[in-house]
Amino acid sequence: MFCVFDNFSLILTMQLSDVMNVGDGMKMNSTHIDMKPEEPQQPNTRRDFIKKAAVGVAAFTIVPRYVLGGQGFIAPSDKLTKAVIGVGGMGRNHFPYDGTQVVAICDVDKRHIAKALPMLDKGVKTFSDYRELIKLPEVDIVHIATPPHWHGIMAVDAANAGKDIWCEKPMTHTIGEGKRVMEAVKQNGSIFRLNTWFRFKDNFYGLGTTVKPVKKLVDSGLLGWPLKVTVSRHTGYDWKFFWVGKDNLPPEPVPAELDYDSWLGPAPYKPYSTHRVHSTFRGYWDYDGGGLSDMGQHYLDPIQYFLGKDDTNPISVEIDAPQQHTDAVGIWRRITYTYADGCQIILDGEAKDANVPYIEGPKGKLYPGFKSDIPDLDRKLAAFPDPAPQMTDFSEAVRTRQQFALNEQNGHRSCNIINIGLAALRLGRNLKFDPVKQEFVDDEGANRLINPVMRAPFTI
What we know:
The chain is of the alpha/beta class. Helix content is 27%, strand content 18%. The protein has helices at 46-56, 66-69, 89-93, 110-116, 130-133, 151-160, 175-188, 211-220, 260-264, 290-306, 377-382, 394-400, 408-427, 444-448; strands spanning 8-12, 20-23, 26-28, 33-35, 60-64, 80-85, 100-106, 125-127, 141-144, 164-167, 192-194, 228-232, 316-320, 334-338, 344-348, 359-361, 364-367, 371-372, 431-434, 439-440. The strands form 4 sheets. It has a 9-stranded mixed β-sheet. Strands 8-7-6-9-10-11 form a 6-stranded parallel β-sheet. The chain has a 3-stranded antiparallel β-sheet with strand order 2-3-4. Helix 6 packs parallel to helix 7 (175-188). The relative contact order is 0.13.
């Protein structure tokens, strides 16, 4: 049985007139907690318990867990269980995570399964169809580490199966998929984490600082408003233009170990080629979007955060790029996003200006290394409050049902920036975007990319 107490036990603080059932195997009234033997024929899940408890209990006081369990008592839920879908290089890298235990894995390539199993405990279940994996009652968290064209479908299915979700970036391959993920997470009460962390920890690539002091500086108003943020090699960000596709790929035999049809999933059918799958899939529009899609959420999500744009998006995107191939992703020179208030994000692929500031405002500039043309910046900044704290422990978020710092809502908005840019690149033209309706303005062709046709039966 799942126990919501985890690191604490809960005692009712308000008078309840009737005994109420707040979870399988547990009853509460105003004076005592009566633990009944669990009934194995009616398995209880974390989400079942929480939903039932929420209906029956209005307020709690938190006290140490040992009051009920005794010193040394370890709740079964102290170690969360997770299943990983996609155990190529990225998926295998994420097996270890404090407070979790891998109990199941899934991959459409038997070679990946074979490499993964020696890294895990005996008894881990293996699957080639993720739909079977997400049915496992013992799984708390589903970690999605597949190519991006699968992220949206798998996240929706996992939420509908009552699971919490850890998803690799980019969050989704299309704007429409992101909206469906948000809906499914909300409807099912899931906890969702997008796996890019720079808005709340670690040095922010070549900027030479964490994002926290950047957020504090922007909030202080010392730079003025509106702001222009330039993301280029000179400000510390490499756009990885080696992620390009090849046109006229010669068809190759599908390896016996690979279920290629399932690997393609919702993407249009294309003849198999080694370069189309696994480590080089990022170079093809059907599955990803080159360096912009690979690195974009790492680079752009923190910008959304420190600009205070987590609930909106740019209203236009302008591109300077060669005409793209219909299948293979190419390079680009410059992408400019503009918000309704005049703030801009410049993606400088050519890195033309070696002296460009990372952030430029009407009152000052910020350069890598937290250098600025504002005199005595550190002293001035010390007078302002720090940014609001964030929930940055995913295991704690799952146990306490608190929204994670980078979740399905703000993650969708920062992913939209990527997908707006990819749409402009694919179509070879500048675009206007309505951040409220989340659709392109007066451009039918661009709007078709919001909800493209998915290849049956792989649909949301």
